[in-house]
Specification:
374 residues; disordered N terminus
Length: 374
Amino acid sequence: MATTQSTNLAQDGLAKRSMRDIARARLPDGKPDGRIADDKAMLRAARELTKDLGEANPRIYWPDMLACVIIGYGAMVGAILVENVWAALGLAAISVLAIYRALMFIHELSHIHRNALPGFRTAWNWLVGVPMLTPSFMYEGVHTLHHNRTRYGTKEDPEYLPLARMKWWSLPLFVLIALLAPPALLLRFAVLNPLSLVVPKLREIVWQRFSALSINPDFRRRPPEGDLKPRVLKQEVGGTLWSWALLASIALLGWKPFLVALAIFSTVAVFNQVRTLVAHLWENEGEPMTVTAQYLDSVNVPPPSPMAAIWAPVGLRYHALHHLMPSMPYHSLGEAHRRLKANLEADSTYHGANHPGLRPLVIRLSRATMSRRA
């Protein structure tokens, strides 16, 4: 198979240039070259070697998600009830990790076919999305724009900022601002959502600017269409009623349960923001990029990195591979990676997006921003 792939490289006109050189390609001003020719051999291998891995398995999705919900909420209740501080902190840590993993299934919901897992989307929303005030409508129809071949890395991409080319203080600010996400979502659903029903202009603002899980401050969301519209209505009503219940619980149960839950949700948001920080290299400045250039700007952290499955759960450790095959279910990405790694030559472009771990990625990004302190 490796010989076949090498032959294909030559046929595609890419063998004359090392894939490692392509991975490092830069324009004269130091920017990444988004015009890198697509590595057709890699793209073909990704398609042909993984044909049998595209079906979402309900026997994996359901137990995984439900176990995270039970452990996450159970540990949260324990953190609220126990008197020992260290025991409470330990239970809170368990709750953070479990709820974080449960929340990351929203990424799967934005890609899997609506008929692939009957009932899973609804169950996830009422068990995770609405209680976390991040129902799936806030990602559906948004995240797929990030995968659009002509929008990735441009000003029309809701999930892209050229962080590597921004000032040094942008990185800590990017992470710390996530602490405000839970209070902001509470404000959005408890106050702005019902108020916008009687103030049409406010409704337009709420939808365009506060109804998408995006990091691009210039992104404005378009009105929902098709079967998304009724789902938005149900999930917004659910979010508003739940947010009112949370606020009412302060009068009934006191501040401790509310504050503990808020602290756990805020920590989950920070975890996700750190993962987002290293999901890409963030080196593009708005120019359209080829699929191969997009892949190389994205990040895989495959085994043997021991912690990646924790800070990048539900397949997100294979984020670059996910950009090659967006509809592949999370439980198949590990096997897909093993097949591609085994069948593609050592100088294949595929290996250019594989990184050893979180720390080297943070250091790389930090160095890039520090070089712009002047």
